Amino acid sequence: MNWHHAVETYRGHTIPHFKLVEHRRWWFTFSGVLIVLSLVGLFWRGLNYSIDFEGGAQIAYPLQVQDVTVADIVDTMAQFGRPDAEVQIVNGDQVSIRTASLTGDTQTEGLGDALAKQAGIARTDISIQDIGPTWGAEISRKAFTGLIAVLAAIALYIAFRFEAKMAIGAMIALVHDVVITAGIYALVGREVTPETVIAILTILGYSLYDTVVIYDKIKENTESSALVSRLGYTGVVDLSLNQVLMRSVNTSLVVLLPILSLLLFGGATLKDFAFAMFVGVAIGAYSSIFIAAPVLTILKGRDPRYRQLEARRAVREGASAPGTADAAAGTSAVAADAAASRATARQSSGPARPRSKSKKRPPAKRKRR
Fold first, then answer.
1. Same domain for 163 and 256?
2. What are the pLDDT digits (tens) for 224-265?
């Protein structure tokens, strides 16, 4: 493919001819590696839940004294009975502290005053957010319930709009997206906040949109019996993917570019949301093309109707386009045998009768008067 043809293909003026379904083992292997790494991250490192899920206290304040280190802040927290507090200095001038809940702690005021004096700020500049463990458990339960409800609603919609096998393929792709996104979050250690849950639910909706576009084109093409008979079900799915490939790529790029700007230039809260969105949209665009459609071909390959069509197509292609020298020689031999059989049949029917020559009539005699 030259540069001009690549540009024309990207702009949608020509349809590419990539063998996407034929190489599904490559895509499945790549996804398998990502899933294994994600599971390792989830079970080995675990998700870094925010206090909204685990409960506890979040202390944040600006740092005016530049020579204060993390160790100094940890020592201050230890003086008030909290040596296990997690302390971070963000961008050199913002302190973030996570610790157990401060509710009922009589030393809260003394702790705030000590931190303010150490940072060189007023006591009112310190923000303390305290969430109990009951609130975090309720948020986790609602997030899990919402995820299951979304997946069930999506499965019912696709089964009603298309068919059950397409719903199965879409569900496999969506679970694939959620596991990999969560695994990447665990591997990089980003904090899981309520904004992350919102981003994941948004990701599922985007991935569903891309999958529905592909399934709709597959459904449209497979309704042509002549096209399925000529290409087979796998060939029709491959054709459908090539027809919508550039649309999916361009749509994904349009969505990813503004998310990337939020990830690079947004605030802390926006960056968490943008990171989940960026990873999820990229994985969702990949799974719609390389997971949902190939899984559908595997499920459909067990259908007796399409098995018969594939068998007939294979026989027809083998007879019309052998593709190898041996097959071509075999075809020539069959033709030669047929010609020899026709010749033998002519010989066995006896010698050919000579054509009767037309007799010339003698000239008529003149009568004498």
1. yes
2. 888 888 888 888 899 999 999 888 888 888 889 999 988 888
